[in-house]
Each structure stands twice: as C-alpha cells, then as structure tokens.
Task: inverse folding
C-alpha cells in the first residue's frame, strides 16, 4: 500500500490497474481531440446549438442541416 497525493491509501492492485489503463485513456483522449477538431464535428455542434426556430427561419429541418454537413462533393 502507498499514499496518494491526497493522503488516501491505494493498494498495489489499484496501482497496477491505473498503470494498465493509462495508455488506453491517453489514446481515447487523443481520439476525442481529433474528433473535436474535425470540421464536420464542429459544424454538427453548431447545428445542435441552433434552436428549431432558427433552423426553420433558414428553411431547414435539423435532419436536412446535418445531411448538408455530410454530403459528398464528388
């Protein structure tokens, strides 16, 4: 057993689990950052921030607006 910075006890098992999980948490965080920086994800977030009235004023439904974000320009 050892002490955490907040003076609570942590077992060897808990230390081992944290050691194993740390790289997976880092990978998950990196993927989250990449997703947040994606232009489409930012556009979807902007659409989700709009009210239904604002979308109606533009002549769009939420589904139509999302479809515009993910359309292919091929």
Result:
């Amino acid at each position: 057993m050892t002490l955490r910075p907040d003076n609570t006890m942590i077992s060897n098992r808990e230390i081992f689990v944290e050691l194993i999980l740390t790289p997976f948490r880092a990978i998950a965080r990196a993927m989250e950052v990449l997703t947040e920086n994606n232009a489409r994800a930012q556009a979807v977030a902007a659409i989700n921030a709009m009210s239904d009235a604002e979308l109606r004023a533009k002549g769009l439904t939420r589904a139509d607006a999302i479809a515009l974000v993910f359309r292919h320009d091929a």
